[in-house]
Fold this protein.
Amino acid sequence: MNKASSWQLLSAVMRRDLAVALRRRSDVINPLLFVVIVVTLFPLAVGPGPDVLGRIATGVIWVAALLSSLLGSERLFRDDFLDGNLEQLVLSPAPLPFLALGKIVVHWLLSGLPLVILAPVCALLLKLPFEAWGTLMLTLLVGTPMLSAMTAVGAALTVSLGRGGALLSLLLLPLFIPLLIFAAAAVESTLVGTSAYGQVLLLAGLMLLTLTLAPLAVAAAIRVSVN
Amino acid sequence: MSVVIEAKQLTSVRAGRTLFSALSLQLGAGEILHVEGPNGAGKSTLLRIIAGLLQPLEGEVWLFGQPQQHDPELWQRQTLFIGHKPAVKAELTALENLHFQTQLDGANNVDAWQLLETVGLLGLEDIPAQQLSAGQQRRIALARLWYSQAKLWILDEPFTALDTYGIELLHQRFQQHLENGGSLLLTSHQPLTWSGERLQKIRIEHNDEELVYE
């Protein structure tokens, strides 16, 4: 009889996911390199003048972050599905949405958090005025968990399809639009000297809503996929 | 002998094809049920329904005299399902796989090294599972059986890719499980060495839409 509590199971699932991710470092590093490369391409393409670059910096960084979150996102549940671990997760005595939240958190730790840390480098490359760096990082900090959660929903829905990658992008990108609008608006407010609290709080609220509902959707999608 | 599992009037339709209809079965403590049938007959589907991964179109499954939906947690804690896919992480070594698997099964006091020795993988502990052979990966997956306290084991083709020694080892473990009052539900194209009253057989065949149940 399996006597483990839900917390023990959650921690085992998360530690195993981390161990697997650390074995395939390229999967973690490639999306980050992608962001840096996209960001460095812009000064070459639109010219290095700070007036142009500073204006488009937020948009470029956020769009690069959105696209990078799609890179390899179909892998989120694909390996588990193929090797049979997804079945075992469904059969685990812990609530499936709870375990799904654990997988979302691990995904964020390996994809969202590094982006937040990388943000100052991108901001520097694009000459974003210094006073907006903090807001940019803040929007990434509250925005990237949302990216991870929504990506997980999409990945769980497409996991049993052979090649869900393109479909996944089409499904997810429209859902990221509100995130993009409020994040860009927050940084913009800081640049014109007003407070960005409103937009950031709204993003934080959206994040909480997504993190509450997404695990339920992921769990339902996984149950359908293992059928 | 107490009834561990009881399937009542199960009907399953997959991709427009009726796999079985009004199938009932009963399995008591210390008994083994061997599901037989040709490829694609619906053996795996039956096992997945009983494991709780699939919903039957009609009918229900009872464990210890309670319907499945009544207490899903009891169900998940008292059954162990190992399917076609071994649930072994290819990137992790055999030892790490066993380590995490014991934690996921709530068996924290199990020594992963001891387990490796039991299933004959000692010396291969630090090789990523993807570099091991299919039979060795199956041994990692089946190592769960040596510490599992679950009352009901549901095994889909457990002997696949195992060598004769591995099959013998598994038979011994099954024997212990049955003697401890456990029950076993399995599919296999391999003949089982058991005989006598403990072994029940059910055969799913479609040639004349007939379902034979022994």
